[in-house]
Amino acid sequence: MSVSSCAASAHPARRSSSRGARASSVNARSSSRVSAYVNGLRRVDRPFVAEVSKAVDALQSEFRAVDDLVAYNTTRVLNAFQNARVGSHHFAGCTGYGHDEVGGREALDKVFAEIFGAESALVRAQFFSGTHAITCALFAFLRPGDELLAVAGAPYDTLEEVIGIRDSNGLGSLKDFGVTYREVPLASDGALDWDEVGVAVRPQTKCALIQRSCGYSWRKSLSVNEIGKAIKLIKMQNPNCLVLVDNCYGEFVESMEPPMVGADLIAGSLIKNPGGTIAPCGGYVAGKEKWVAAAAARLSAPGLGIDCGSTPGDIMRTFFQGLFLSPQMVGEAIKGSFLIAEVMSSKGYKVQPLPRAPRNDTVQAVQLGSRELLLAFCEAVQRSCPVGSFIKPVAGVSPGYASEVIFADGTFIDGSTSELSCDGPLREPFSVFCQGGTHWTHWGLALGEVIEQFSPESLLVIDQAFHTNN
């Protein structure tokens, strides 16, 4: 049985102009798009601006490759669901201590562990962000006098106060507890500095942190094979050094996951890739059983184990269903990243990853070069969202971030980055980081808004508004 790519049918061929007599009127911004009514239904023959249409035509082979990846990962997920004998009774919620929960937690943990190639997993609503899950993993590994080594450059902004890079004001950072920290800078090309990684681990280095995604750094995200190579180098220097992978934005982007190449623990968020755009909250840790149990003790308390905690309402159903949808949703986000890179590169902007380069996460960075362009990009994306399209995003200080940050996230789940969204810190080189999307065509429409917003007239309005407010 052959499987055809969904990409071709999603971008219909252009029709003849003979239907023009029945075409509906369009506004000036949509003048390059042609509409017609067939059997009473409106058909948009050219839904995208010319630059986006050209990019879609050029990306058909990449889109087909993504479809193959989606099919492979969906098979893995389906097998895990079937092996765990997931049934509708697992979707029931629980309250209070959660002691009479009917097996949903155990089944979900089992499904996660199999998918990620881990001995054990802990998937809970009580993790309220990826940073929270990563923090539980770090505190599971590290004790006073130990050293934490970041081998992929500086970690994401929200981990700086957790580690003690920025002062936590005595609120309990790793530094407050006597854990020291070093990092291995990236090489000049933005990749891991393999020579330095090969000599960086010391006897007191208890944990090596590998951030899979680029975060807010202008660097390449890491492939699972690169992570495996780094783990081998780390273990050769100190077999007792534990490896934690920040897996945010990386789930289902490849056919493997870090525990399959030796990671002791991974951690991430359910409002990113593995929540499939519908999980309303939560996070996970997965890896070696001993260390998953230790992370669970940091989430709850020593002695409580993993069989407690309420999950009220319909949350368990969304966790299971979101996980099943994840390969497809990640595939759409990858297609969106290809499209963003293709269009913005054609406009002369630096992009990371490069157009048509292999993807290791769902993040696409675009270097815009000025505050005005960063604001303009985010305003255009917000205007393209289904929720809060009327809201103008404003840069400001957010908890955990060192710089002002602007977010465009008109999403159904607050802060969800598995849905179409973008954000960026207001600092040089003023890069915007795009991610998510339930369908790549949504990014196609959003890019049309971006191109319109980048017109000289629109940028002049933004510049005047900025100087008026400052």
Automatic annotation (TrEMBL):
Low complexity compositional bias, start-end: 1-11
Superkingdom, taxonomy of origin: Eukaryota
SUPFAM superfamilies in alphabetical order: PLP-dependent transferases
InterPro entries documented for this protein: Met_g_lyase_put, PyrdxlP-dep_Trfase, PyrdxlP-dep_Trfase_major
Region feature Disordered, mapped onto this chain: 1-26
Protein name as it appears in the record: Aluminum resistance protein
